[in-house]
Amino acid sequence: MMLEKRTTEFLEELSSAQPVPGGGGASAAVGAFAAALGMMVANLTVGKKRYADVEEEVKEVRSQLEELRDELVVLTDKDAEAFEPLSKAYGLPKETEEQKAKKEKILDQALYEASIVPMDIMETILKVMRLLKVMGEKGSKIAISDVGVGILFAQAALEGASLNVFINTNLMKNRERAEELNHKADAMIQEGKELKEEIYAGVLAKIR
User: Fold this and answer.
1) What confidence category does residue 4 fall into, taking pLDDT thresholds of 50, 70 and 90?
2) In three state form, how does the secondary structure of the chain look?
3) Of 75, 116, 121, 162, which sees the most CB atoms within 10 A?
4) What pLDDT, in 10s, does the model give residues 182-202?
5) How far is residue 173 CA from its own chain's centroid?
6) Cα(124)–Cα(75) distance, rounded to whole angstroms?
7) What is the CATH number of domain 20-207?
8) pLDDT digits (tens, 9 = 90+) for 94-130
9) 13 pLDDT exceeds 90?
10) CA-wise closest residue to 153 among 194, 200, 191, 114
11) What angle (nearest 5°) sits at the alpha carbon of residue 31, between those of residues 168 and 22?
C-alpha cells in the first residue's frame, strides 16, 4: 500500500512524472489525515473526568474514524488501480469504424469506472466531516484547533476528489450517467462546504 511507505517516499512518487499516484490518491491520503486528527482529539478526550458524560459517544466516534481512516488508506491504492483500465482504453486502435465504435464503448465504461473511486473517496470523507462536527462540539478543548485543521484537510480532500470525478464525466458520451454522477458530487460538495463553515467557525469561536 502506498501509505505503508514513509511519507517522504509517497511524496517522491507523487512528484514523479508517473500518472499515479495523482490527485485522487492524494485526496484520499489527506482525508485519512483528517480522520487521524479527529481520532487524536478523541484520544485526548477519553479518560478525562471533565468529559466523562460524553466518553462513550467519543469512543464510538473514535472507532468510526479509525474505520474511515483505514478505508481512505485503501482508497489511495484503489484510485491508482482504477487508472490502468482507462489508460488501456485510451490506447485502443481506432483505424476502422468498428474499432472506433468498440473503443468508444470501452472508453465510456472505463471513464465511468474511474469516476467511482473518487466518488467513494468523497463519500468517505463526508462521513469523516460529520464526525469531526461531533468532536468539535464534545471533544477536549485543548485540542479543538486540531478539529479545525482536520476539517480544512477534509474540505480540500473532498473537493480535490470531486475534480477526479468531473474530469472523467466531462468526457463520457453517456450524458445521463455522467450527470447523475455530477449531481451526486455537487450535493456532497455543498454539504461539505456547509459542514466546513459551521465547524471552522465553531473552532475559531473557542480559540480567539
Assistant:
1) low
2) CHHHCCHHHHHHHHHCCCCCCCHHHHHHHHHHHHHHHHHHHHHHHCCCHHHHHHHHHHHHHHHHHHHHHHHHHHHHHHHHHHHHHHHHHHCCCCCCHHHHHHHHHHHHHHHHHHHHHHHHHHHHHHHHHHHHHHHHHHCCHHHHHHHHHHHHHHHHHHHHHHHHHHHHHCCCCCHHHHHHHHHHHHHHHHHHHHHHHHHHHHHHHHHC
3) 121
4) 999 999 999 999 999 999 999
5) 26
6) 9
7) 1.20.120.680
8) 878 888 888 888 898 999 999 999 999 999 999 999 9
9) no
10) 200
11) 40
C-alpha cell at 184: 451526486
pTM over 0.85: yes
User: Which of 138, 123, 167, 111 is CA-nearest to residue 56?
Assistant: 138
Residue 200 CA to residue 189 CA, distance in Å, equals 16
C-alpha grid cell for residue 47? 479518560
User: Residues 74-103: what's their mean pLDDT?
Assistant: 83
7: pLDDT strictly greater than 80: no
Q: Is the link from the previous residue into 21 a cis peptide, with omega within 30 of 0? A: yes
Rounded to an integer, what distance in angstroms lies between the CA atom of residue 137 and that of residue 61? 12
Output the nine-digit C-alpha cell for 11: 511524496
Q: What percent of the chain has pLDDT over 70?
A: 97
Report the C-alpha gap between 83 and 90 in whole angstroms: 11
The Cα-based distances of 26 to 79, 128, 149 in angstroms read: 9, 16, 17
